[in-house]
# Entry
Amino acid sequence: MKSFLCFLSATFASSRFNLFASSSRAAGGKWVTRRGGLRSALANEMMKKFAARICFCSTRSRAHRSAPLLGRALSRSLFLGVLGVLAVNSSSFAATIWNGPTWTVSTAIPDNDDVGFTDTRNVSIPGMTEIVSVTVNLNFSGGWNGDLYVYLVHGSGFSVLLNRPGRSTGAPDGSATVGMDITFDDGAFSDIHTAIPMSGGSVNGIYQPDGRTTDPLVVLNTDARPAMLSNFIGIDPNGLWTLFVADQSAGETSTLQSWSMSITAVPEPGVAAFAILGSGLLLRRRSKSPTSGH
Ligand SMILES: [Ca+2]
# Structure
């Protein structure tokens, strides 16, 4: 790079100002030509000195600074490496799993009523500001599971847990099972809407939430599923969470006995990054030798 700079300076000195002189000659008479030549000679001399000065400084800089530069480069690499390792590991050691209480409701859901029933709970997870994952448990007794429409709301997050499970063109009444004790988890193996038995007693186990946002009166098993629990990822877990439950078909009444949530969350990235940067700066300062400073 320094050699290239020397070459560039010398080239500039020997060509640009000669061109200036040449153009002056082409534009005017002898006086102008001589004056241009004088300008050119003077400028060439100045540029040569300038070029020599740059080369001298470059050589001097290279000789005097090569060792400290190597030390600083190693120090910088160590600093960035430490920051990288801390950043990669920070999300894992900072995560908190909050297993909330079981909220007892014991309320019958009005039969075939769009108004439905809502239950709002306050969640407080000190120090945690971003959701990584959410799971929800619902416990119903009685009724007709294929009548149920249930969703969860918090902040800008919205997830449909049940939307007439079992309902399809061939089964417009949905699942005839009675009651459930189900944990909804995006990572589960099966979709509650298609995997639930079509008849029998209470349903238990772990299922993916329904996720379908279609009108419960016409929802089908083939509909898209945009409202999964992953919609809560990145949102602050603290604050109010509202569960909405409605019975969407006449006949049979379900009772919501209880519900609960488990939330995995992490601190605010900015706070974690500040802590990491502070640690990195401290390590960097310690890694500096006494002679490498200015
Ligand atoms: Ca009903």
About this structure: The chain has a mean pLDDT of 75. The first helix runs from residue 2 to 27. The beta strands are 96-99, 103-108, 113-123, 130-142, 148-154, 157-163, 180-184, 203-207, 239-247, 254-266. The chain has two domains: 2-68, 96-267.
